[in-house]
Amino acid sequence: MNPTVNADPAELAKFSDLAHRWWDPESEFRPLHQINPLRLDWIDGLAGLSGKNVLDVGCGGGILSDSMARKGAQVVGIDLSTKALRVAQLHALEAGTANVRYEEISAEAMALERPGAFDVVTCMEMLEHVPDPASVVRACSTLVKPGGWVFLSTLNRNPKSFLFAILGAEYLLQLLPKGTHEYAKFIRPSELASHCRAARLELQATRGMEYNPLTRRYWLSADTSVNYLFATRKP
User: Fold this and answer.
1) Nearest CA to 229 among 100, 54, 46, 69?
2) For the segment 179-223, what is each residue's pLDDT rounded down to a tens digit?
3) Could you tell me the CATH number of the domain that includes residue 100?
4) What is the DSSP letter of 202?
5) What is the pLDDT of residues 7-57, one digit of tens each?
6) Pairing of β 144-155 and β 118-124
7) Which residues of 6-17 are buried (b: 16+ CB within 10 A; e: fewer)?
8) Do the domain assignments include residue 4?
9) How many domains are contained in the chain?
């Protein structure tokens, strides 16, 4: 296997099969559309996206990439799903988002090509889908400039997250397709913090994300027990 390709073929196939539905806000990707403004505002509030060179790792159909470009950033979105990237490119054309482009390349391969090229690197809802999340964190650190920001989000590994993110979201509420997540791949905040320290990224802020199934509303909070976000900087 190519050492710069840190991907699970089954995970790629799973999201490729759904690619045509990325931009349907009532599809399986509805949660991504709902949480995107929360993530975007948090990232923009800390890093100030306007005028920045931004890399979105594991961009999928481009929901976050496109919105960061609309905040005035020059955005490159990368993914290993050909179908998802085609959807992202098509949406950028249809929406007239000029300052975003997409490449089919892994974070590790991009790190070899363009170290220190970006002011901001985002990697959202991806680490729990790859065989070696620490490798992705290292690549993100290599890709960002000194003083730049790396934003990460993933799922905590504990009984509550199993109940909410898998049983609740996939089976009871059917917010996500069954099999979207694999509990064993969830990452505790202490584990992600360790990966960040090893990659010379300094943790600046954390946020949790909560969901009320009755109001169907998401919000950011201090509760990192299920979904959580890290803001880190490279010294």
Assistant:
1) 46
2) 667 888 999 999 999 999 999 999 999 999 998 878 889 999 999
3) 3.40.50.150
4) E
5) 677 665 665 565 578 888 888 788 889 999 999 999 999 999 999 999 999
6) parallel
7) bbeeebbeebbe
8) no
9) 1
Q: Which amino acid is at 156?
A: N
Q: Which domain holds residue 183?
A: 9-233
Whether 3 maps to a domain, the answer reads no
What are the structure tokens assigned to 3, written together? Answer: 């050492």
Neighbours of 140 (CB within 10 A): 30
User: Is residue 140 a contact partner of residue 150, using CB atoms and an 8 Å limit?
Assistant: yes
Task: Please tell me the pTM assigned to this model.
Answer: 0.90
In 3D space, the residue among 33, 43, 45 whose CA is nearest the CA of residue 75 turns out to be 43
Read off the pLDDT of residues 102-135 as tens digits, 9 standing for 90 and up: 999 999 999 999 999 999 999 999 999 999 999 9
Amino acid at 76: V
147 CB contacts (<8 Å, ≥6 apart)? 233, 234, 235
> Which residue carries 């920001």 as its tokens?
149
CA distance 220 to 234: 24
Spatial contact of 149 and 231, defined as CB atoms under 8 Å apart: yes
User: Which tokens in the block code for residue 125?
Assistant: 């809802």
| The token pair that represents 158 in the structure block | 């504990």
